[in-house]
């Protein structure tokens, strides 16, 4: 029996049952319908309408992570409009200084896009719907989701709640500017995963001043970026106190100090924190190790504005005893707002985005899918112009780590790691002193957070 006939048979039985029991309080309105997991529509009990009926607008809000409009349209709005012409996904775009808490107190976005840098904040607002009933009602097969992503989601809540569905795995790579390598006659990074020692040797050759321009050999997102190579938490999961005084964290601080100590890395005017704009727009960084999503979408936007340069991708490096592994895979996720009037419709949109075809669109446009489907790796980047000719297979070299547990206090104390990096880079603080100072500052922050947020 085909899926369609099976679905129609089930729908008929349910319709007959509804007719026998009547339309009691809390039951479905007569004639309501939904879209089946296979995409076919049929009559069924439920207090929502199938996506193929009346015009409907679902609002969408991105709480964190890099998600430019070009990606929102390509990965979500346009595919849903093509699948369901009556459905419009409308993005809420507040002012850059508006916090997620402020947005969610004045708007009710039906679909919420989040990453680990905002999950705990949104949990505190109560905006996440527990998706377990929606998963069951729509027969969503969550066994298709990669365990390293879904296990993280399951650890977010105190109980059994499922607050989000992984949208993509945001993995790390090493971006490099071929023009800078060519300018100084240095061989490109290897397509084999390199050690940090090998990468630093290259960085030293490319950190120099030429015709008044400061070229920086390597940018790594500093302590917070490097720590993801070992999957390190910032605070203890149980106590919430600083977790920096460990051999692993000492190793991270020492590596970051070595980078800062490269001659010319810190400029005479004290510039030390090198990031995306310096790589993409100023084009003075030779190598940058960072998230895929942090760069691919913005690079495509830049290309559409007529700005291109010669860059490529190498595997993210790691310590010699960690080769074969890469940094944590950050989870970008989709959630349903607990206050939405269209919870079922919003979840059906999420289900469509998590379908094989929806995830294929992600893969072909430069995002690593959240579902288990090796076939999609071979299609990675095929539809996004900025990745044409790039060595995209290097994205999949190295096994990504599961993202460490993000304690509810962690987001509030991250600035202390930035301060510690600056202390080493600009003030010349040694590793042990930097760790002690950061530990003391974090523990004081935790005392304050326990007062304001409670013992989470």
From TrEMBL:
Pfam families: SBP_bac_1 (PF01547). Residues 1-21 form the signal peptide. PROSITE patterns: PROKAR_LIPOPROTEIN (PS51257), SBP_BACTERIAL_1 (PS01037). SUPFAM superfamilies: Periplasmic binding protein-like II. Residues 30-47 have a biased composition (Polar residues). Keywords: Signal, Transport. InterPro entries: Bact_solute-bd_prot1, SBP, SBP_1_CS. Residues 26-50 are annotated as: Disordered. Belongs to the bacterial solute-binding protein 1 family. PANTHER family: ARABINOSE-BINDING PROTEIN-RELATED, DIACETYLCHITOBIOSE BINDING PROTEIN DASA. This is ABC transporter substrate-binding protein. It comes from Paenibacillus shunpengii.
């Amino acid at each position: 029996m085909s899926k369609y006939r099976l679905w129609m048979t089930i729908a008929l039985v349910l319709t007959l049952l509804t007719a026998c029991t009547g339309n009691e309080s809390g039951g479905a309105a007569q004639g309501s319908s939904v879209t089946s997991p296979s995409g076919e529509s049929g009559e069924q009990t439920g207090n929502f309408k199938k996506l193929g009926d009346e015009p409907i607008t679902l609002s969408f809000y991105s709480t964190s992570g890099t998600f430019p409009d070009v990606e929102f349209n390509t990965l979500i709005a346009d595919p849903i409009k093509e699948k369901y012409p009556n459905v419009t996904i409308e993005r809420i775009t507040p002012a850059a200084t508006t916090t997620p808490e402020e947005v969610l107190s004045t708007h009710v976005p039906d679909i919420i896009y989040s990453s680990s840098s905002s999950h705990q904040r949104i949990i505190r607002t109560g905006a996440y719907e527990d998706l377990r009933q929606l998963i069951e009602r729509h027969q969503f097969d969550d066994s298709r989701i990669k365990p390293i992503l879904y296990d993280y989601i399951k650890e977010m809540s105190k109980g059994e709640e499922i607050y989000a569905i992984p949208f993509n795995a945001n993995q790390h790579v090493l971006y490099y500017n071929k023009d800078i390598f060519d300018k100084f006659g240095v061989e490109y990074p290897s397509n084999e995963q390199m050690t940090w020692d090998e990468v630093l040797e290259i960085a030293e050759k490319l950190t120099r001043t030429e015709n008044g321009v400061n070229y920086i050999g390597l940018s790594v997102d500093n302590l917070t970026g490097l720590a993801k190579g070992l999957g390190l938490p910032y605070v203890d999961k149980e106590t919430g106190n600083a977790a920096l005084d460990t051999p692993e964290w000492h190793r991270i601080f020492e590596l970051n100090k070595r980078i800062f100590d490269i001659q010319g890395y810190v400029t005479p005017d004290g510039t030390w924190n090198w990031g995306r704009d310096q790589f993409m727009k100023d084009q003075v960084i030779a190598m940058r190790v960072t998230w895929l999503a942090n760069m691919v979408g913005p690079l495509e936007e830049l290309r559409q504005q007529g700005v291109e340069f010669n860059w490529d991708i190498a595997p993210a490096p790691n310590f010699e005893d960690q080769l074969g592994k890469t940094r944590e895979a950050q989870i970008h996720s989709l959630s349903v707002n607990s206050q939405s009037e269209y919870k079922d419709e919003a979840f059906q949109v999420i289900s469509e985005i998590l379908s094989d075809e929806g995830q294929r669109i992600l893969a072909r446009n430069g995002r690593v899918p959240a579902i288990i489907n090796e076939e999609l790796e071979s299609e990675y980047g095929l539809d996004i112009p900025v990745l044409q000719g790039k060595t995209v297979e290097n994205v999949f070299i190295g096994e990504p780590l599961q993202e460490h547990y993000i304690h509810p206090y962690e987001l509030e104390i991250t600035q202390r790691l930035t301060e510690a990096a600056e202390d080493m880079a600009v003030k010349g603080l040694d590793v042990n002193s930097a760790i002690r100072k950061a530990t003391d500052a974090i523990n004081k922050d935790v005392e304050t957070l326990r007062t304001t947020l409670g013992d989470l």
